């Protein structure tokens, strides 16, 4: 038996006769961080949604282990003004927690003082920390983080990524992470998948880093600690997202 | 006790306001006010059918409302028209069908004014029972589906991802709206029920800081409006349904006054003193 929490087999999603993403296979096991990187519109969020079964794949299969607790930190949430909602109510959204548990989760992400604050009074970074706190409070088996540090200041970003690692150790969950921070991706991840409508390359960070594919994607001399995201193509994408093979060298 | 029509009016009105409170909050949160209106428009068809077939009015209206909700779901999947266009399409075509049918079945005489604006002073004991039993069922179901419904209102994908079933909760919620509108016809009428759903919830929004608080305060405002509205209409000899709505509106305007701001700023000053 496989001990994966979530498995995608050659999955793809099409909308209006156009593939948003295709041919994605991945596995997330307990205690493992799998990271998706790729440019905007490359199908990262779509892939995450397939792994959560929010989106049914039009091709391939998605399997989620039965009976596991899942937490999801979506890329964007907007709370309507008509909804009065405090941080504590938001943490309790899907499952009711003890106040002590909520305090713990909020302390881990550094916003314990905001527990009774209305969520619309939170800044973008504070709200992101709240999303994370809610996800942690559930002590999930499988955690999906869709760009969890957007809008968080730089020291906060590092702290939050450290938190993510601590969570993995503490509750031994599997994480599917979407991130733009290449340094974090390379130093703290078990498996990297680079997407651009399809899987461009994938593997363990220290093997991926030596592969010509990776060098093509991110450049030769980039120190991972200084790396910013660059997606140098080894192939051309046509306007509809399909791949133009005619220009390839090899 | 229930011999007195005033007592029956109070009992029916209070029972109705009790459920429209929390239900109205969800209508406001989910931006469904036009949906409530659409269902209310279909009531005329339900009433006509009830009279033609000599059938219970509330049940006929409920059935027609449910059919309307199902047609809406169907249209949403088959066309890419925006929801408000679909609702407008349904509301007015169903109203027109109701009127045409009423014309064909010329032997039916319906008190149109009563249907549009209700007559809370003429409710009988059975109506009161319908309100309280139906209301209790609606409230119980709403409490049972609260978590998936609320989580889906905040973020549908998050609720789905984490194992709740917000789609089922939404479908059940739609049936709850249909039943409350059916129950309310004799009390405030089809033109005013949306007001009784939305105005107390909106007024309550100005006073509350948590969702449950908003639902409870909304009920209280609704009940206060019913009580004050019935009494006012007796004094001024005005029609009761509209009077209740006018009182609700007055309460809404009162909640716009910066009372809460004054309270909060006082609290904040106290807090900053403590620091």
CATH architecture of one domain in chain A: 3-Layer(aba) Sandwich
- Architecture per CATH nomenclature, i.e. the level-2 architecture of chain B: Orthogonal Bundle
The outline of chain B comes out as: globular
> What proportion of the residues of chain A is helical, as a percent range?
25-40%
Radius of gyration of chain B: 20 Å
Largest interface, counted by CB within 8 Å of the partner chain's CB: A-B, 25 and 24 residues
Helix content of chain B: over 70%
Give the oligomeric state: heterodimer
Distance between the termini of chain A: 39 Å
* Main beta sheet strand tally, sense and closure of chain B: none
Query: What's the alpha carbon Rg of chain A, rounded to whole Å?
Result: 19 Å
Shape of chain A: globular
Overall structural domain count of chain B: 1
Low-confidence stretches of chain B: none
| Highest-level CATH class of one domain in chain A | Alpha Beta
Provide an overview of this structure:
The complex is a heterodimer of chains A (250) and B (275). Chain A is an alpha/beta fold and 250 residues long. Chain A has a domain at 1-69 and 171-250: P-loop containing nucleotide triphosphate hydrolases (Rossmann fold, 3-Layer(aba) Sandwich), CATH 3.40.50. Chain A has 8 helices and 11 strands. In chain A, strand 10 (236-237) and strand 11 form a beta hairpin. Chain A is globular and about 50 Å long. Chain B has 14 helices and no strands. Chain B has one domain: ABC transporter involved in vitamin B12 uptake, BtuC, CATH 1.10.3470.10. The model of chain B has no long low-confidence stretch (mean pLDDT 88). Chain B has 275 residues and is an all-alpha fold. The chains are: A alpha/beta (250), B mainly alpha (275). Chain A binds chain B through residues 49, 52-54, 69-72, 74, 77, 79-80, 82-86, 89-90, 93-95, 118, 138, 144, and chain B through 28-29, 31, 147, 150-151, 153-155, 157-164, 205, 208-211, 213-214.
């Amino acid at each position: 038996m496989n001990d994966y929490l979530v498995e995608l087999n050659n999955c793809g999603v099409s909308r209006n006769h156009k593939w948003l993403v295709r041919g994605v296979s991945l596995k997330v096991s307990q205690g493992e961080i799998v990271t998706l990187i790729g440019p905007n519109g490359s199908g990262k969020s779509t892939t995450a949604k397939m792994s959560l079964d929010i989106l049914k794949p039009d091709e391939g299969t998605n399997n989620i282990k039965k009976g596991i607790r899942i937490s999801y930190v979506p890329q964007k949430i907007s709370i309507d003004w008509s909804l009065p909602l405090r941080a504590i109510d938001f943490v309790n959204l899907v499952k009711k927690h003890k106040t002590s548990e909520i305090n713990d989760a909020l302390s881990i992400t550094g916003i314990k003082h905001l527990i009774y604050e209305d969520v619309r009074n939170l800044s973008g970074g504070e709200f992101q920390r709240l999303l994370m706190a809610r996800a942690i409070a559930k002590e999930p088996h499988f955690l999906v983080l869709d760009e969890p540090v957007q809008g968080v200041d730089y020291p906060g970003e590092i702290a939050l990524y450290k938190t993510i690692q601590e969570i993995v150790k503490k509750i031994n969950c599997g994480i599917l992470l979407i991130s733009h921070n290449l340094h974090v991706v390379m130093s703290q991840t078990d498996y990297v998948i680079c997407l651009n409508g399809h899987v461009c390359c994938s593997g363990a960070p220290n093997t991926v880093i030596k592969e010509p594919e990776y060098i093509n994607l991110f450049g030769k001399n980039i120190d991972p600690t200084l790396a910013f995201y660059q997606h140098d193509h080894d192939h051309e994408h046509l306007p509809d997202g399909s791949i133009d093979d005619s220009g390839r060298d090899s | 006790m229930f011999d007195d029509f005033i007592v029956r009016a109070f009992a029916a009105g209070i029972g109705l306001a009790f459920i429209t409170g929390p239900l109205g909050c969800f209508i406001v949160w989910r931006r469904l006010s036009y949906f409530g209106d659409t269902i209310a428009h279909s009531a005329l068809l339900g009433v006509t059918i009830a009279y033609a077939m000599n059938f219970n009015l509330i049940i006929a209206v409920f059935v027609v409302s449910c059919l309307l909700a199902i047609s809406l779901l169907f249209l949403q999947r088959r066309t890419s028209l925006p929801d408000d266009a679909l609702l407008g399409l349904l509301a007015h075509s169903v109203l027109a069908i109701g009127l045409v049918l009423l014309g064909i079945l010329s032997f039916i005489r319906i008190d149109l004014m009563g249907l549009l604006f209700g007559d809370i002073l003429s409710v009988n004991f059975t109506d009161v029972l319908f309100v309280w039993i139906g209301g209790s069922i609606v409230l119980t179901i709403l409490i049972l589906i609260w978590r998936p419904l609320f989580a889906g209102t905040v973020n549908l994908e998050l609720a789905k991802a984490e194992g709740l079933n917000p789609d089922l909760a939404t479908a059940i919620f739609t049936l709850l709206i249909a039943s409350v509108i059916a129950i309310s016809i004799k009390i405030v009428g089809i033109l005013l029920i949306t007001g009784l759903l939305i105005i107390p919830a909106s007024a309550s929004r100005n006073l509350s800081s948590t969702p449950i608080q908003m639902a409870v305060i909304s009920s209280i405002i609704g009940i206060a409006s019913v009580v004050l509205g019935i009494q006012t209409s007796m004094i001024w000899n005005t029609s009761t349904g509209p009077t209740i709505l006018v009182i609700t509106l007055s309460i809404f305007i009162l909640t716009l006054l910066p009372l809460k701001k004054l309270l909060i700023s006082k609290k904040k000053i106290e807090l900053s003193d403590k620091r």
